[in-house]
Amino acid sequence: MVNPGRSRGGSGEWEQPFWQQRGWILSAGFLLVLLVLAAATLMTSEDEAPEASGSPTSAPTATASDADDTAGGNGRPAGCRTDDSEQEKPTAAPKDVYWKAGGTHLVPASKSAGPLKFDGPVWSCFAHTPMGAVFAAHAITNNFGLEGWREVVERQVVPGAGRDAYVARRSKEEQDESTSGQPSEETFAGFTVLAYNEKESTVMILGRIPSVDRYGSLSVTLRWQDGDWKVLPDPDGTIYGGVSYTDGTSGFITWGT
Average of pLDDT values for 65-70? Predict the structure, then answer.
């Protein structure tokens, strides 16, 4: 089994016993990670944090934009066409953000930045922009927690030793997983783009944990491959890096809802 004590860019503060917990090791989705973090907070009796602001609310679910059924430029899959002109790091969330149910969570999506295609658990066709990488980081990692996670990993994780290690770990632990099917109180709250070029991007995601009035953040690295963004794991199968707590949204772009 992969050593659960290592995470991309970690500071070492999230070492034992938290990393030894099976739920933490699985890390099926960002919000599931935050749920475990919340439990860890209660166990260690940390001081109560200041009251946090409200979480995003759901907007009516929208279907993908059916632009045309021909392949886009630059090797994009058929039916996928986006405006890739904005290459600067975002300073605000897009005005066309809406919230789409993904399992027990609400996930941010955009008709301009993606995802524009929905094939079961595989949400794809993201803009080749920093904002497109942001939406990909949220959608892809969230859907690791769905029943169709194998298809998500096969189609939306960069092939290699890292993907093989992640699949091996998930497969070994799959029978021990359970989902209640109930809506989760943890919500996506904001983001920041740590690094970006046309080949790779690292996005930090901020989530709110209402039960402890706190926020948790972690980073996801993506690579542009086969005409779309894909998650790039470490060679040992680690998906998430830089896991930490924060008491507010300073330094992050909030979703504004």
Answer: 36
